[in-house]
Specification:
Elements lengths: L1 E7 L2 E7 L3 H8 L1 H6 E6 L2 E3 L12 E7 L3 H22 L4 E2 L13 E6 L8 H14 L4 E7 H10 L3 H10 L3 E7 L5 E3 L13 E11 L8 E10 L2 H16 L2 H7 L3 E3 L8 E3 L1 H20 L3 E2 L5 E3 H7 L1 H4 L8 E2 L9 E4 L4 H8 L11 E10 L15 E11 L4 H18 L5 E7 L12 H17 L5 E4 L8 E7 L5 E10 L1 H5 L4 E2 L5 E2 L2 E6 L4 H11 L13 E5 L5 H13 L4 E3 L6 H10 L4 E5 L1 H6 L1 E6 L3 E7 H14 L10 H18 L12
Parallel strand pairs: 1-5, 15-19, 21-22, 28-29, 28-30
Antiparallel strand pairs: 1-2, 3-4, 3-5, 6-7, 7-12, 8-9, 9-10, 11-12, 13-14, 16-18, 17-18, 19-20, 20-27, 21-23, 23-24, 24-27, 25-26, 30-31, 31-32
């Protein structure tokens, strides 16, 4: 009998070996074991049934529990494999592709790509889901084996799984892991971890089936992709289904077409966005607001090219560490007599470095903040493209800050403050912050020393702690050049969207030999911060469409006021009203068609115009306008001057709802009246001023 020293949290305990990870957790806390799905052992994610290696050193174990993000990922990954097992059982001869968990996609929780003996349809999904539930009830074990590459290849060749053989050939050097679901036809090449058995999978649902290509390449095998989702509990799944029904109504792709905001033209290329005039207005308002804020906060607005010499991306490390995301090099025509190769830029950072290096820098100049709304291009797989959320050409609201070590914490903190201010301006109030760090497993080509990583992480943590911002530490999700802060926002129906990233970079300043002359008159290397607030203009635009369900607040709305004359004889007055509003820079649409007023109102409602001015004989005679608000309906008659006072106030303050402006004097009168009523009657009345939602 051997003895193993186990550490879980701050506690250490010696247990008898041999022992599995589950045995070790059980020795500490049986209740934790009940909630555990997998674990991290000395930084490596493993299954609970993994045998612990005998060693004299302390074995650090962190249980992955059902109520954690990592636990949810294990559930979804395992459910994807349960889906594959059910398909193989129902449709023998099916060839398997890949089946990952989806943690950042609010639409789905996982998918599996397959080539079945026949084309599957939506009608097959309930049948497959039923078989999955039958297999779940049987508590079938997930079992891992570590096998040599040659043996795994032989195994999948014998099963006639050419796509799996291709993956194994690409990714495996020596040994690799395969997984079985006992008493099922399922075998897969996979890193894991998985739940101990199928009985842990209780709340899942298949959602859709679509076409896909192997590796997203239209020249490769055509496959079918089955989407689903999974949660720890049925209550969570039910809540998500309800949310999804609302999300479908808000789908930015549908609303983008209905409201004529943008389009994707397949003839021009997948993942390339065309903003139409109405969408262009919304985008311009977004960008104008951001540029104004950038200038106020000391950023210099820069503009850089769309291509650069290939050598630049070799120096930066992107060609080595980010090759899958780069478009192929572009050469010049032979008759030029030049062999120079260029690449479309996948990010802006090396260009901003070029501006920094354009002349010698002094510590007195720092921090230097460069900002650019720069369009970048990434070779995303066609199967991953989704409306505005995942594209091949997009505009980053990018910025890079060059500073001294003494300035770094303050600069990171100001980036976080900036992000929060931006999000609140656009109507977001709830946030989730993640700190992505290197982790112990170095399998992502991380650059820099351990000391670099530690100091960078400390700076990010200090900035968050100074603001008392809670965060979740995410191991192994840092960029290859440094740790980062990710900020997610919650939209109006409870979905979380990853938007802002603030990244610490000690790699590029070294690679590009950046310097500044310090107070000691000696050269020093600056520190560098990457940050994007929107994430990308396109993605943020899509999130806003869904957040507001296309009903943008007044300051963002493509058409702010619709002028609706009841009869043709009011048209001249309508045009006069429109001209006055336009003179105050409001975006106005005048409907002079001979339609009935009900049809005109419906049309404006369908276009989600914030305000409609209904003009009839009475309004003409009294020189007034009858105001109709998008949600509240008719809010009364007023003079055009009163209406202008109201909407100018809303625009100036970037109000998020179309509230009725009330003067301070009127507000005092209202409150005084309510107080007097309470004193006279002895009754207290609750009164609340709310937006007109």
């Amino acid at each position: 009998m051997s003895e193993l020293t186990i550490k879980i949290g701050e506690n250490t305990k010696a247990i008898r070996g041999p022992a599995t990870v589950a045995d070790a957790i059980k020795a500490f806390d049986r209740d934790v074991l009940k909630r555990a799905l997998a674990a991290t052992v000395n930084g490596e994610e493993v299954d609970l049934n993994k045998e612990l290696t005998t060693t004299d050193e302390i074995i650090s174990i962190e249980p992955v529990t059902v109520d954690s993000r990592d636990g949810l990922e294990v559930i979804r990954h395992s459910t994807a494999h349960l889906l594959a097992a059910a398909v193989l059982d129902l449709f023998p001869g099916t060839k398997l592709g890949v089946g990952p968990a989806l943690m950042e996609d609010p639409r789905y929780g996982f998918f599996y790509d397959i080539i079945a003996p026949r084309m599957l349809t939506e009608e097959d999904l309930p049948v497959i889901e039923k078989r999955m539930r039958e297999m779940a009830k049987r508590n079938l074990a997930y079992r891992r084996e570590d096998v040599e590459k040659a043996k795994i290849l032989d195994m999948f060749k014998e099963r006639d799984e050419p796509l799996k053989c291709e993956l194994i050939d690409e990714k495996v050097q020596g040994m690799a892991s395969i997984y079985y679901i006992d008493n099922s036809p399922f075998i897969d090449f996979c890193l894991g971890p998985h739940v101990p058995h199928t009985g842990k999978l209780r709340a899942f649902k298949l959602l859709a089936i679509s076409g896909a290509y192997w590796k997203g390449d239209s020249e490769r095998e055509q496959m079918q992709r089955i989407y689903g989702t999974a949660f720890a509990t049925q209550d969570e799944l039910d809540a998500w289904v309800k949310q999804r029904e609302e999300a479908e109504k808000r789908d930015h792709r549908r609303l983008g077409k209905e409201l004529d905001l943008f389009s994707i033209q397949e003839d021009y290329g997948q993942g390339l966005i065309f903003f139409h005039p109405k969408g262009g207005i919304v985008r311009k308002e977004m960008e104008d607001y951001l540029r104004d804020e950038l200038v106020k906060r000391g950023y210099g607005i820069v503009f850089t090219p769309h291509i650069a010499k290939r050598q630049l991306w070799q120096t930066s490390g992107h060609e080595e560490n980010y090759s899958d995301g780069l478009f192929e090099p572009i050469g010049l025509p032979e008759w030029f007599g030049e062999e120079t190769e260029f690449r479309l830029k996948p990010m802006n950072c090396p260009f901003h470095i070029g501006i920094y290096k354009s002349h010698r820098r002094s510590y007195r100049e720092l921090p230097l903040r460069y900002a650019e709304l720069g369009t970048v291009y990434r070779a995303e797989l066609s199967g991953t493209l989704h409306g505005l959320m995942r594209v091949r050409g997009f505009t980053q609201d990018d910025a890079h800050i060059f500073c001294t070590p003494e300035q770094i914490v303050a600069e990171i903190g100001s980036c976080v403050d900036f992000a929060y201010d931006v999000f609140r301006t656009f109507g977001f109030e709830n946030f989730k912050v993640e700190l992505s760090v290197k982790g112990e497993a170095d399998n992502k080509g991380y650059l820099g020393s351990d000391q670099d990583w530690t100091e960078a992480e400390i700076a990010l943590v200090k900035a968050l702690n100074a603001r008392e911002i809670p965060y979740e530490r995410i191991e192994g999700e840092a960029a290859f050049y440094g740790p980062k802060i990710d900020i997610k926002v919650e939209d109006s129906i409870g979905r979380m969207w990853q938007l802002t990233t603030v990244q610490f970079d000690f790699n590029l300043p070294a690679r590009f030999e950046l310097e500044y002359i310090g107070e000691d008159n000696q050269p020093h290397q600056p520190l560098m911060v990457h940050r994007a607030l929107f994430g990308s203009v396109e993605r943020f635009f899509g999130v806003l469409v869904e957040h507001f369900a296309g009903a943008f607040p007044l300051w963002l709305a493509p058409i702010q006021v619709a002028i609706l004359p009841i009869t043709d004889r009011i048209n001249e007055y309508a045009e006069k009203v429109a001209a006055e509003l336009k003179s105050h820079d409001f975006r106005v649409e005048t409907n002079l068609r001979s339609d009935k007023i009900g049809a005109k109102i419906r049309d404006a409602q369908m276009q989600k115009v914030p305000y409609m001015l209904i003009l009839g004989d009475k309004e003409l005679e009294e020189n007034k306008v009858a105001v109709r608000e998008r949600r509240k309906g008719d809010i009364g008659q007023m003079s055009l001057e009163e209406f202008l006072e109201m909407v100018v106030q809303q625009r100036q303050t970037r109000a998020l709802s179309n509230w009725r402006y009330i003067s301070l004097e009127d507000l005092v009168d209202v409150i005084s009246g309510l107080v007097n009523e309470s004193l006279n009657t002895g009754l207290m009345r609750e009164f609340v001023f709310r937006p007109s939602e």
